Amino acid sequence: MFSSKKDTETERQLDMERIPAHIAIIMDGNGRWAQHRHLPRVAGHKQGMQTVKKVTMAASDLGVKVLSLYAFSTENWKRPATEVNYLMQLPIRFFATFVPDLVKHNVKVMVMGDITRLPEATQKAVKDAIKDTADCDGMILNFALNYGSRDEITRAVRSIADEVKEGQLDPSAITEQTISDHLMSAPLGKLADPDLLIRTSGEERISNFMLWQIGYSELEFVPEHWPDFDGETLKRAIIEFQGRHRRFGGLVNK
Ligand code: FPP
């Protein structure tokens, strides 16, 4: 798999003992990638889907434990209907061809976001993929679909308030962990917070993605548009991550 000279050089620098456990990616630049080629925007999303396959396999091979991908935000509904419809078809096409590979690589599919607003066929494809990979215990491929972090936090606050109102929870007992436990990432347990957040295509924004969970994540903004991202650019991002000194507010370089 790693054949070119450049690959070998990159591998030399990669410390396989310090692979970030949870990598989150804001997959941006599909539209610009297509426009640069005089193609319709959706051609960028189609190519972006192929990148999802490549990067999933690369991350799994490197020993990443959770890969969270921002596939459709609560704000993406504002796009033209044709583009939204195309994006809604992508999970169907993706899982129709890719679930056997996911199972072969022991990758488990999970989802964050309110999928009840997605078309029935999309919901079914997502639920089937979750079911078909339920016994896999390798990397978790965590799709954010109709996900927005403010929406997630609002729902968590509402749910905590309900528990207080029902007398099940004392306000003084609310901790940071209580909040984490009510977020859509709660099923990820100790792995819920990304170690590394990557955004492609040069934009330097978080765009409502995992706002609570990235409190101490390393952030990387890379110039490649998402369809040009691959296992090699992922490794480069991890090498950059490994050169950073995470202190979590303390003083010790670990
Ligand atoms: C952002 O690029 C990308 C999206 C809003 C969609 C991301 C979706 C995929 C990469 C495919 C997902 C695949 C599966 C399997 C669900 P943009 O359109 O905002 O690009 P631009 O900023 O250049 O216009």
Give an account of the 3D structure.
- This protein is of the alpha/beta class and 254 residues long.
- It has 3 domains: 24-68 and 194-201 and 215-242, no CATH class; 70-136, no CATH class; 148-193, no CATH class.
- 43% of the residues lie in helices and 13% in strands.
- It has 8 helices and 6 strands; from the N terminus they run αβααβαβαβααββα.
- The protein has helices at residues 5-13, 30-36, 41-62, 81-104, 120-132, 149-165, 176-181, 231-242; strands spanning 22-26, 66-73, 108-112, 140-147, 196-199, 218-221.
- Strands 3-4-2-1-5-6 form a 6-stranded parallel sheet, with helices on both faces.
- α4 (81-104) packs parallel to α5.
- Residues 27-32, 45, 48-49, 52, 71, 76, 87, 90-91, 94, 143, 226 line the site of farnesyl diphosphate (FPP).
- Residues 27-32, 45, 48-49, 52, 71, 76, 87, 90-91, 94, 143, 226 line the site of farnesyl diphosphate.
- This is Isoprenyl transferase.
- It is an enzyme of class 2 (transferase).
- Catalyzes the condensation of isopentenyl diphosphate (IPP) with allylic pyrophosphates generating different type of terpenoids.
- GO terms for molecular function: transferase activity.
- Belongs to the UPP synthase family.
SSE order and pairing:
Elements: H1 5-13, E1 22-26, H2 30-36, H3 41-62, E2 66-73, H4 81-104, E3 108-112, H5 120-132, E4 140-147, H6 149-165, H7 176-181, E5 196-199, E6 218-221, H8 231-242
Parallel strand pairs: 1-2, 1-5, 2-4, 3-4, 5-6
Number of H- or I-type helical stretches: 8
Q: Quick one: overall form?
A: globular
Mean of the pLDDT scores? 95
| Beta-strand proportion | 5-15%
Q: Can you list the ligands bound to this structure?
A: farnesyl diphosphate
What's the gyration radius in Å? 19 Å
Report strand order across the widest sheet. 3-4-2-1-5-6
DSSP summary, beta strand count? 6
Helix content: 40-55%
N-end to C-end Cα span = 31 Å
The major β-sheet equals:
6 strands, parallel
Helix and strand content put the structural class at alpha/beta
Binding site for Mg(2+): 28, 218
Binding site for substrate: 29-33, 41, 45, 73-75, 77, 79, 199, 205-207
Protein name: Isoprenyl transferase
Keywords: Magnesium, Metal-binding, Transferase
